[in-house]
């Protein structure tokens, strides 16, 4: 580890980012925190002159215990979910997701007398106390996990499936069938005098792998653009924004005056971006269609709390994706998100979607970074290379990586990320300086 840190520092990398897993730190019981290994890691980073971005990881890592990087939610939380299955998200078929606790019970005392938001807040508060000597000096940014994979979204399809080649056809499933979500939907429907709209998600949403034009809800002139469709999608996406706001508010109050920046992450769901309804974004909670901007409200939320917006897809090209799915457009998705960030004057942190160090991917990263960095006013922009593993230090890969550092730095600063969840290294970066010249680089 020391040799890896030394190499990164010598390459001009600004810092490393580490996921602080809830399932590791608070695994033994509510309010019982074990930070020891992470303290050693932060000290090692300080020794090599690297900064740290700390990711508050309140989600599950991996798909099952057979996965080498498997980190479930804390045992005591899973026991509570066994007793009350509705703490987990559910789709219309009754399939439960244990990647993240349902936001429907955000403020209810369902975890040994505490609400999920209280539990997340207590975790961050104990982190602040345990790492107080490093905050603002070594630990310079906190990324708050807000959902599956740390992203502000619903688990519309399992996280591991998002990296599969055939993910491009996934419509996703609306995650609104646990009793807490249904109670909210029912109350909202009754409030507007349409109680018949409160019994569940949309009919005619099709199956996961169906062509959206063959569904009555997602097709171009489908019911997504009717009074009912607008009601449901506003409620569904609105709850996600409320969840994000609760976490933003908690993080702001906990880390106020510590000298650290706060960030949050949005998923890069682009495989039906070229359709009218953008079904895979809708099921994930992003009410983004060809007639409605679903990312500007998120950027505005982050702007209210002066947070950095993190997203992926910086390495992806439309030409490659269109070979598999003509409706896919990662470049247009990224352009829209970058525009929202610039409109709200907030920093943007990018990531690569696939772990590759080929020339085409790295060239695309440089190209994508220009979406945000060009212009008279430049809030900070960072790029996070994900994920660093042993292959990164292969001579050919290391040559490409260091060249990327130089290209992105260009009189700016660059930061890498190491992700130690499940024992796999992960590297990311940052490019850009703040107005006053302070280096930005995390995750």
Verbal overview:
This protein has 443 residues and is of the alpha/beta class. The protein has helices at 2-10, 22-25, 36-47, 75-83, 116-130, 179-191, 227-254, 279-284, 296-304, 318-322, 330-343, 359-373, 395-409; strands at residues 15-21, 51-57, 88-90, 96-101, 139-144, 261-265, 308-311, 348-351, 381-384. The protein has a seven-stranded parallel β-sheet. β8 (348-351), α12 (359-373) and β9 form a beta-alpha-beta unit. The longest helix has 28 residues, at 227-254. The protein starts with a helix and ends in a 34-residue tail after the last helix. Mean pLDDT is 87; it is low at 411-443. Residues 1-15 form the signal peptide. It is an enzyme of class 3 (hydrolase). Pfam families: Glyco_hydro_14. The active site is at 151 (proton donor), 351 (proton acceptor).
Number of strands: 9
The major beta sheet can be summarized as: 7 strands, parallel
- In spatial order, strands of the major sheet run 1-2-5-6-7-8-9
Determine the N-to-C terminus distance.
18 Å
User: Which oligomeric form is depicted?
Assistant: single chain
Amount of helix:
25-40%
Class derived from helix and strand content = alpha/beta
Rg computed from alpha carbons, rounded to a whole number of angstroms? 21 Å
Describe this structure in a few short sentences.
The protein is an alpha/beta fold.
Keywords:
13 helices; globular; alpha/beta; 443 residues
Topology readout:
Elements: H1 2-10, E1 15-21, H2 22-25, H3 36-47, E2 51-57, H4 75-83, E3 88-90, E4 96-101, H5 116-130, E5 139-144, H6 179-191, H7 227-254, E6 261-265, H8 279-284, H9 296-304, E7 308-311, H10 318-322, H11 330-343, E8 348-351, H12 359-373, E9 381-384, H13 395-409
Parallel strand pairs: 1-2, 2-5, 5-6, 6-7, 7-8, 8-9
Antiparallel strand pairs: 3-4
């Amino acid at each position: 580890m020391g040799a890896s840190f030394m190499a990164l520092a010598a390459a001009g990398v600004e810092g490393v980012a580490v996921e602080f897993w809830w399932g590791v730190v608070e695994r033994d019981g509510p309010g019982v925190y074990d930070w020891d290994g992470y303290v050693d890691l932060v000290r090692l980073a300080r020794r090599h002159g690297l900064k740290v971005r700390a990711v508050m990881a309140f989600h599950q890592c991996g798909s099952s215990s057979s996965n080498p990087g498997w980190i479930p939610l804390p045992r005591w939380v899973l026991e509570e979910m066994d007793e009350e299955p509705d703490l987990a998200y559910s789709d219309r078929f009754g399939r439960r997701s244990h990647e993240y606790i349902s936001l429907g019970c955000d403020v209810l005392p369902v975890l040994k007398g505490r609400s999920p938001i209280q539990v997340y807040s207590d975790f961050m508060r104990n982190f602040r106390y345990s790492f107080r000597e490093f905050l603002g000096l070594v630990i310079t940014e906190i990324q708050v996990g807000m959902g599956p994979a740390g992203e502000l979204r619903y688990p519309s399809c399992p996280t591991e499936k998002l990296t599969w080649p055939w993910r491009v056809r996934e419509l996703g499933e609306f995650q609104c069938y646990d009793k807490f979500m249904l109670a909210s939907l029912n109350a909202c429907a009754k409030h507007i005098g349409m109680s018949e709209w409160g019994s569940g998600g949309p009919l005619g949403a099709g199956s996961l792998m169906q062509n959206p034009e063959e569904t009555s809800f997602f097709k171009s002139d489908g019911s997504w653009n009717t009074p009912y469709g607008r009601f449901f999608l506003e409620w569904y996406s609105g709850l996600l924004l409320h969840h994000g706001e609760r976490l933003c508010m908690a993080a702001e109050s906990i880390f106020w005056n510590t000298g650290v920046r706060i960030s949050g992450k949005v998923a890069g769901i682009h495989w039906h971006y070229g359709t009218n309804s953008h079904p895979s974004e809708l099921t994930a909670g992003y009410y983004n269609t060809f007639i409605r901007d679903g990312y500007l409200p998120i950027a505005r939320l982050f702007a209210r709390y002066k947070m950095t917006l993190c997203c992926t897809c910086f390495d992806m090209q439309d030409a490659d994706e269109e070979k598999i799915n003509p409706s896919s457009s990662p470049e247009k998705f990224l352009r829209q998100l970058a525009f929202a960030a610039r409109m709200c004057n907030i920093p943007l942190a990018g990531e690569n979607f696939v772990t590759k160090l080929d020339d085409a991917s790295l060239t695309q990263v440089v190209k994508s970074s220009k979406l945000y960095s060009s212009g008279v006013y430049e809030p900070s922009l960072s790029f996070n290379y994900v994920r660093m593993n042993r292959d990164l230090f292969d001579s050919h890969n290391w040559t490409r990586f260091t060249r990327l550092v130089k290209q992105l730095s260009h009189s700016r600063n660059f930061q890498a990320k190491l992700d130690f969840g499940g024992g796999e290294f992960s590297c990311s970066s940052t490019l850009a300086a703040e107005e006053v010249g302070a280096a930005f680089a995390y995750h």
